[in-house]
Amino acid sequence: MNQKVLLITPPFTQLNTPYPATAYLKGFLDHQRIASLQVDLGLEVLLKLFSKAGLKEIFSLAESSSGKFSENSQRIFMLREDYIHIIDEVIRFLQGKNEMFSHLACAGSLIPQASRFNAIDDMDWAFGNMGIRDKARHICTLFLEDLCDFIVENIDSHFGFSRYAERISSSAYTFDPVYEELFVEDTLVIDAQNKILDEYIKKQCPTLVAISVPFPGNLFSALKCGQYIKSAYPHIKIVLGGGYVNTELRSICDARIFEFVDFITLDDGEIPLLNIVENLEGARSQSGLKRTFVKVGEKIEYIENSDSQEFSYKENVAPCYSGLKIDDYISVIDVINPMHRLWSDGFWNKLTMAHGCYWAKCTFCDTSLDYIKRFDPVSAQVLCDKVEALIEQTGKTGFHFIDEAAPPALMIAFAKEVIRRGLIISWWTNIRFDKTFTYDVCRLLRASGCIAVSGGLEVASQRILKLINKGVSVESVAEACHNLTSTGILTHAYLMYGFPTQTAQETIDSLEVVRQLFENNILHSGFWHRFAMTVHSPVGQNPEKYNVKCKKTGLNPFANNDIEHVDVKGAQHELFSEGLKKSLYNYMHDVGFDLPLQQWFNFKIPPTTIAPEYIYSSLNSVEEEELKENAKIIWLGRMPEISYYSKKKKGKDVQMAEITINTKDAGLKLNVNRRVGDWVMQVVQKSSVVAGKELTLKQLKESFLDENLGDFLIYCESNNFNQLREAGLLIL
């Protein structure tokens, strides 16, 4: 084909790793033999701004403006030469290119400090004497955040490290605010964006530009890209897609957006993009496009007439990171918390275990949309093939699986395949805190490199969890978290308040449960968000059922997702926001557990009805798991060694065996009857995960009985068998 596609992530998403959309699309286009290249404009704009030349321009603009500096901005401006002097080394350090800079950063005399440094009293407690690099990374993060505050206050109020002009794009029921802002004089950020974009277009000569808009904070900069291309390169076609488009613009009827783009696609972008390329090539008519909005005359027309089959993640097509400046991403630590840092620290290759959600029943969720409802899991073998391909591409061995909820069965199969192939990776993903996550399952996941999981606890109230149709209880979530953390896997919970009919009592009780989860060290991190009623969720599609009244009816001309509503029976949810966030911040720093909940709120709250030892008691009353005959038996470790000896028992020689098991952190010797020892060695050999083997519990029992070794149930309760399980014999 003669077409060439430029894939763009507009400012801003993450600092530490690329947003995955363009890499997914490039992998697909490469597979189709369509020429393409990709650029993370967010990263490149940030690197341009946060450089000596960039800061000189920022301070010069601030000096020439007519505004008066705040006390904090005045301090930063007075220290501008120090900021300019050190900025390049700070960035190099955060890129991992100058680790020795950490000693200087921690010395206390090099990094200028403004208001972001006001809350660093706990530095020594958090990092100790030896956590120099993490401490330096946090200090350098605060340094950048001070500069960000200065830019927002004096140069560009739209600016943010992970978003741009988010305020005017969030809940943009009409296009007017965005449209009007598009014709305001370009800011420093947009000017930098356009210059970088122009360089890529001149060098690469694309015929089609595809812009991904994952969040509201990317829409404005995406449309500014389109505006610039339409002005400077009117022959180039532009397509808009991504998560924001998929959820917000499904009913768009304001044709003015087509002043900046030519196509808008919905849901997975691979086939719609392929069809557009075919259309530009003359091989497909416009009427044969897939899930695509176009402007026909003065109206918007939605086209869904393609005969092309949906692209499946099951196909062995890995994302492609070529063209992205992988070594230039910036790792920061904004919150001193080992779990929370994963979102901002380190380069993560992004993959997906399964398209959609295997549960897809939560009443607050967009269950009517394709990205949730169409469940399509990848095989463990294909997933590991993609892992190996990305390691070869990027040289990085960290993986973030960006599932809505990774299927436990696939996680187990993937973990086995990782171990079988001898891959050494670190990985984390989003899950449901499912009862499947037993202690042994978590041990397997940890052995394969799983370091963390995030999952939705939402409202820690049995009644609300039932209304949400979450399919879990507070106790089952606590048990799953306990099993995960007991094996060294970090946990993060998405927390919700303000679900329809939720009372003040339920909100406070939910907070008390969260407090206890942290206090018992089975939850490491969390995030409170207020319930949002969307048009794509069961609540939004049937508000009366949930005692909710919509403030308005009918569709908006631009964005249609969040529905303004009144909770007829619930509490005044907005009152709780600050207190919930403040308490959580403290719990995430391992402080404040002994403070009464009233301490976090500036209004009277009801006392909690949750018992002080509720979570602790719940964990200690968990019934022992029932072993099912079809349960899988696998051996995690290397082959043990066996030696034989005899001992006198009641005057007779008894043949014995000593099994020596060396795990990575300990050694174990089992002294058993010789016949039992031989049976154990056979079991280990036949269930070795390294060799890709496994038994069922039924087979294990039958082999035990075939050898006439006694009562199998009694053996399963023996100290001998328990030691074997602790050493690496897992029952899944």
Sum this structure up briefly.
The chain has 732 residues and is α/β, with parallel strands linked by helices. It is 40% helix and 17% strand.
CATH topology of the largest domain: pyruvate-formate lyase- activating enzyme
**Rg (C-alpha, Å):** 29 Å
Which structural class do you get from the secondary structure elements? alpha/beta
Classify the helix fraction into a percent range. Answer: 25-40%
Span from first to last CA?
Answer: 50 Å
How would you describe this protein?
The protein folds into 4 domains: 179 residues, Response regulator (Rossmann fold, 3-Layer(aba) Sandwich), CATH 3.40.50.2300; 89 residues, no CATH class; 290 residues, pyruvate-formate lyase- activating enzyme, CATH 3.80.30.20; 100 residues, no CATH class. 40% of the residues lie in helices and 17% in strands. It is built from 28 helices and 25 strands. Helix 3 runs antiparallel to helix 5, helix 18 crosses helix 20 and helix 21 packs parallel to helix 23. The chain is globular, with a radius of gyration of 29 Å.
